[in-house]
Amino acid sequence: MDHKDLIFLCDSFYNLTGLPIRYYANQQLVRMQPRIPHEVDPIHEIMPRMLEDHHDLHYYMNDDLLFYGKVKELRSDRMFLIGPCSNVPLSGPNITSMMIHAKIAHQHREAFAHFLTNIPPLSFENFLHALCFFNFSLNRTRMSAEELLMLSNPISPNLTRIQSTLTETRYRAAEQFLSHDTYQLEQQILAYVREGDTKKLSELFQSPVRADAGPVAKEALRQAKNILIITAALVSRAAIQGGLDIETAFHLSDIYIQQAESLSQLDALTLLLQRMITDYAERVASERYPSHLSSATRACIDYIKKHINTPILVRDIAEHVGLSASYLTRTFKQDTGMKLNDYINREKIEEAKKLLAFSDRSLSEISNYLCFSSQSYFQNLFRKYEGITPLTYRHMTRTQ
User: Fold this and answer.
1) Which residue, among 206, 260, 271, 201, has the nearest Cα to 232 in the 3D structure?
2) For position 164, what pLDDT does the model report?
3) Which of 31, 48, 213, 327 is an S-S bond match for 23, by CB 3.0 to 4.6 Å?
4) Is residue 300 within 8 Å of 340, Cβ to Cβ?
5) Nearest 5°: phi and psi at 79?
6) Helix (H) or strand (E) holding 50
7) What whole-number distance in Å separates Cα of residue 151 and Cα of residue 57?
8) Is the pTM of this model over 0.85?
9) Each residue of 244-256: pLDDT tens digit?
10) Bridge partners for 69 per DSSP
11) pLDDT over 60 (residue 114)
């Protein structure tokens, strides 16, 4: 591949992924995206390992759990170094630690922080996929992410040891009359979440019936946090099965897990666990459709919820559902007693109420986010449905 093609490949990869990439020829830097000063680039911390490594395609991880990759052009002295990348957004204390390890001078902190915070978070698995894709684009040789992982970890999990540990653990548990007796309770909780049955959940939490989970950590606080994480995974999926939209379910799970990690008291974690389960059930209950709604009306409601912060036109919904606009509006009115446009406005105002109550966004920001034609139109529509102005509503919710 000639020099211009390599420049194009380098720039295209960065534009597609947002991952920093450097093009070297004979160990001399030819191009970097994004362009940053040499003193700010953390690659120097890990570059000796990359240069010593004989693999043409490889990944590396440092003490801050940042990952890097190397893709060498076959039969040439040209190579590409990719990274850093992280599976979580980088900020604050993380950046200080990274500066120390990468030996970045304090006067470059602002530029270094700007560089890192603009790197999109990416799971380690997807980072490996990106490396394999770049390698194929450069060398026309295929290697899967799994093969790349095995290349760096030739020792596969010791299945004999796992079986031996399992046998010994079951033996000790039997001797001490310990068992995993949570399955029935778990299924009961998941069923109530799936059905949005908050009443039965409340009764269950108040009852003396309990079950003991097996050890998933060596320390009590970590045990409680791990159980909450496992429960979040289970109830979020039960809620999705019950009708809660996927994005809400997964974002809510992330929020509760992050909140759990910040707690240091077992009682607080117990309360948070119960609140999380109930929250999911309440949201499922609020999302459930009346049994008489037609499939077309349900499809309309789903579309509106998923596109609440975009301009929503009846013709767009009709095209999505695969029906004529006139038939769709008539069916929606028969099912709900509301005109479709009125329902769209009503839902946008409900979303605005959440933003007014739980965020500090200005009226213009909320109006723009929900795609109203103007702020004055938003305010007039809000007054029409709620009988008060948006600012009055915000004040009332903050003083209750």
Assistant:
1) 260
2) 64
3) 31
4) yes
5) -150, 165
6) helix 43-52
7) 10
8) no
9) 888 889 999 999 9
10) 59, 82
11) yes
